[in-house]
Each structure stands twice: as structure tokens, then as C-alpha cells.
Amino acid sequence: MKPKLIFLAFLFMTILNIKAQCNPTITSPRLGVKFPDKILFCNTETETLSTQTFGSYQWYKQQWTWQTPNTNPWTPIPGAVSQTLTINGNDDQLYYFKVAVTQGDCVAESPAIMADGFVYGLPSMLSTFTPGTFSQVGLGEYNICAGASVKFDDVFPDLYGSHVWYKCIPSSAPPSNGDPCVINGATGDTYIATESGEYGFYACTEYCPDQCEFLGTGNFVKLNFGNWEFCSLGTDETKRKESNLKIYPNPTAQFLYIGKESDKIYKEISIIDMSGKIVLQKNDHRFNEAIDVSRLVPGNYIILSKDSQGNTYKNKFIKK
């Protein structure tokens, strides 16, 4: 009886061992280098996925989506029935992969891994302005008050490493030695501009040092620093008379009246939103004429009125 029990115990442990081995996982040289369950490609290179030795294999792929949960189907990859699978950065980015295996009477699937397109994020620049110190004068062009500053940030700081920042559009990219547009010493993912110029950058990905991107001339931002008329909003107290004008109705949904009969005509009327942007301007405005503000977004606004003597009045109103 005892030898029989020993044999049964041995047989049971053998079965457990077979079952334990039917637990596939995926490995590859680049998997998990930056993220635990992802492969990041550099350019269009290839990567070989592999799993443990089993009786049979079938590899599957699923397209990535923002949707949670991912409802895209898992599809078998034709001919992918060996222990390894080669994928590439051109065709397989933004796909999940898994492998189904059999070993005797055991059938199992591996956890999924992803071939990510993170490293291919194109460069993008975020511009941060101080409210009340700027006015947009065209696509990608701004007038900035002297003494103010504009902050530029790479939108993908985790992706890109060392930067080259420009103060004008360069003659070539990558940057060449002695290019006068290069800002010496500016290598971080942020730059603060305090003088006129056209700003942008060139940067290489941290994960793939040989993979570099130029922001593109169409995405450069042009800044014109100077003592612009709107800059007096917070500084020219000698000529401004606070709230000396009648503004009615206030709040208003459509028409706004401003002024006093003694002034008759105002040389210039400027309506400014809370970010400092001029959203409506009118010249030679009569005090008894209605200003149509129906197209303005509801919120708080500042209105600057300049009379014929050069006095500037500042009032606030609410657009309903």
C-alpha cells in the first residue's frame, strides 16, 4: 500500500508541475526598459517577442484605442505559430500582443504587452502669457509689453531630452555651428523669452538619442516687445481716470452704452478680456451710440475709452 501511495503522490506532483509550466509570458530586449508592459521603438527597427517552450503557439494582436475597456477584437496573426514573433516600428505601433499556447491538456494565454507610439510624439510648444501684457496681432504673432516675459514649454518633456532653442527661424535643421538663431546655453525643455524674436526648438528624444525632431517653422511664435498702447492698462495712472464714465446697461447681453455728453466723441474704444486680449475695438465712437457686444463670450471685461484730449478711462462690465 505504501509504494502505491508514493507512486500516486509522485504522479500528482508531476501533473502539478506540467500545469505550472503552462503559464506563458512574453519577453523581449526592449520590453519594460521605460514602462513595465510596453515596447518603445526607435525609428522602424524590429523587435523579437518570445515566450517559453510549449507544444503549440498562436500570436494575436489588438489595435489600441482611447476607449476603456478596449472593444477592438483580438485577431490571430496569420502564420504566427512559432515560439517567437518579430514586430516592427512601422506596422506594429499602437497594437497590443499576446500569445496563446498549449502544453498537453493545458491551454493558456500570456498577459498582453503593447508596442507603444509614445516615442514618436511630434514636438509641440506651449506658450504661456501674462494676462494684460500681450495682444495677438496675427497667426502665431503677439505684441508684448516691454518688461514682461513669455514662457515656452515643450509639451512632451518626458519624451525629449536636450533641446536647442531658437530666437529666429534657422537656416537649417539640425542646427549648425555658429547659427545666429541658436540661443546659447538654452538646452532645457522650457525657455523664457524677454526680447523680440521668433521662437521654437529642435530636440532629440531621450529614449532614442539619435531620433530628433524640429518644431517646424509654421509652429514658431513671433514676439514683438514694446511699449504698446494697451500696456498702459496697469501702469499709466497719470492719464487714466478710473470709472468716470457711465456704462449702461451693466450687465448686458447685447448693447452697451458708454460715455458722457460733454466728451461727444471718443477717439478709441477697446474692450479687453481677462487674459489681456483685445476682443473688440471701435474708433470715433459717439457717446449715444450703442456698442454691440452680443458676440462676446459671457464673462467680465475691461473697456478702455480714450477721449479727444488723450485721457484714458477704464471701466468694467459684465457680458451676460
Automatic annotation (TrEMBL):
InterPro entries: Secre_tail. Residues 1-20 form the signal peptide. The keyword Lipoprotein does not apply. It comes from Chryseobacterium lathyri. Keywords: Signal. It comes from the Bacteria. It holds the Pfam family Por_Secre_tail. This is Secretion system C-terminal sorting domain-containing protein. Residues 247-318 form the Secretion system C-terminal sorting domain.
